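Sample 1 of the test manifest.
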Amino acid sequence: MDLLPTPGQMEIASLAADFFGNELPISVIRERRDEPVVVDRRVWSESAELGLFGLGIAEELGGAGCELAEETLLFREMGRRLVPGPFLPTVLGARVAALAGQHETASAILSGKAAVGLALRRGPDGFDAATTPSTLDGRFQLLDAADSRYVLLLDPAGAALVETAALTDVHSEPAIDPGIRLAEARADAVPIIAWVSTQEEPIRLRALVLTAAMSVGIAEATRDLSTEHAKVRVQFGRPIGVNQAIKHACADMAVRAEAALSQVLFAAICVQDGRADAEFQALAAKSVAGRFAVENASATIQVHGGMGYTFEHDSHLFLKRAHVLEHLLGEPADHLARLVAQPAAQ
Amino acid sequence: MDLDFSKEQVEFREQVRTWLEENAPREIRPEMGPAMREYDLAWQRTQWEGGWAGISWPQEYGGRGLSLLQQLIWFEEYGRAGLPGIDACFVGLSHAGPTLMTRASEEQKTYHLARILRGEVIWCQGFSEPDAGSDLAALRTRARIEGDELVVSGQKIWTSFATLADWQELLVRTDPEGSRHHGISWVICDMHSPGIEVRGIETIEGGAEFCEVFYDDVRIPLENVVGGLNKGWSVAMSTLSFERGTAFTANQVRLASTVEKLIDLAKERTGPDGRRPAIADDEIARRLATARAEVASLRAMTYAGISRNMHRDQPGPEGSMVKLFYSDVAKKVYRLAFDLLGADALRFVSRWEPGGWSGNYLYSYSVSIGGGTSEVQRNIIGDRVLGLPR
Ligand SMILES: Cc1cc2nc3c(=O)[nH]c(=O)nc-3n(C[C@H](O)[C@H](O)[C@H](O)COP(=O)(O)OP(=O)(O)OC[C@H]3O[C@@H](n4cnc5c(N)ncnc54)[C@H](O)[C@@H]3O)c2cc1C
């Protein structure tokens, strides 16, 4: 047992971090707030060339052959740096296409030619666990689907990939987070081009872990932002961090970040190893990391005073993304209801 | 990153589990007094005889010389078996023992360590004083040097199990001229020495382990100083880092099984609407689920801490994060238990009896005070983990 990432795993994460630092610094979100998409096609293709979309996909299916552990570290890095763009649904969409045997679709996604947006169902989960669905119906909220050829839907029964162009009534909506693009859409008997059931592959658990990993990144980045500010901002002749109201707020952020990180790494391994309590651990990770990211980001605005209330500062971007992540893949209350219904952890 | 235990470690877990099933004491632990001392020592002795004492202690001091991971496995199984805490033996096993191992002379180690493991002696911790609690360095209990002896006068307070203890890890001021952190010594004190008077203090749960200890010219051989005269502060700091380290694992596992018991209880008991089981109440269900998520995180944090410690000799300041999170979660969990019982919670049941939720609820107020308050842990995290200015 060793919960900490190995040097090799940290190296993968830091290579990705360097790339994001150069190509998608947080300022991009502000610069492109009025553009239809946040990540342009050049950066998207470079991400594909780096192998970011297929990191956790087996080599024979066109991926890099790493595991969920490495993907988790990658998404934690994205959370830390507030990387915009549909990385999560693209990574998972490539997996769905590959596992469903849709190799052309998979390679279009992996090569960066086609991106995948995320579809969040409005209303109750639609698919019947017993049958393989062939079409998609209902109303959806879309995330980062504007320039995406496909959208991915993650239901408890399984994951479905459809073509974005087949959706109707698509209209964009203003988003609370300038780093994402929101839209509403409808599906009327839209053909499903790739389907992977939950029995075949726990895609939804992977999604929970990766979303939680981004939340962890936010909890850590806001802890660091606050700590740094507490060291350098001087009031009453001393750094504000000497005051316990600030110091203790930072300490609480450190504890939340550590708790969330530990649980997310733990859950990643449980899902990767197919442990019996994988769902328990993934739900716990999503719940803890989601909430702690929001709490850390909120506290960060307070620690920064007036500056924390400006659009120019990063605090609000972290807070807004933390809220987006908390509402992905089901509501927090839904995750808690599922968690309490699980058998005890292993 | 892995959660794999080797074949050997898995077998070890099986052995621990079987052994605990067959050998754990079946009688309810006496709540106080000499009977409790006998109970705790007898249980420690049984562990020693079974070869389970001091799993990660070096063999030369009577330990098994096994890894931190095996120690973790032991604590996990121990907590899972629902066994009582190591209470009266805690200071010896988790404080004094590890401190002596890293800081004491060979003679001190040879004499004391095996006695702790064999369940022959109880240790207590004489750190806090009436005017030196969180501010431990304000301690005033004075020890003057006379020949080859220290002569101690002063008072300690909140000393758990002092009435039952044989030995004490005692912090005294040996150099009154020294600044706050200098001139303190960490001393092994024989609790049966003339001049020591112990008075009990009752706790909010009716417990009797709390004590005041008075020292009136108590003579302690100079050779009982550990880690050098006037250098006790750094010794004390390592003692506290051990307290906040792996010793905590059993408590945390016990908390996880408490949450599982509460979920079962919420399925059996009628909830606040008087009709449906408590678990059907959304607020209760969410609080239970949150407790599950948080105790899971606590365990993961412990694993992360052990993973870090496997790569170094001494636990670092991160232990304070586990301690702080544990205190917050434990208080929430026992409050939830209390709320779940409704008016039945008003009936007092001691935490040593089955269904002792009200006793445990009251006890939970101590977890954010003992072993350094939560505010002090936040100071440590701010200063030493985050490097904030003081
Ligand atoms: C169950 C239990 C068992 C114990 N066992 C032992 C034992 O065996 N041996 C032993 O030596 N001691 C023991 N203690 C004592 C324990 O270590 C002290 O109670 C603790 O360190 C706090 O000291 P105090 O009680 O003097 O409170 P104080 O230090 O007076 O604190 C009072 C309040 O002020 C806060 N405070 C104090 N200083 C600061 C600061 N700088 N910043 C922010 N807030 C501050 C505290 O957090 C607390 O809320 C035990 C305590 C308990 C509850």
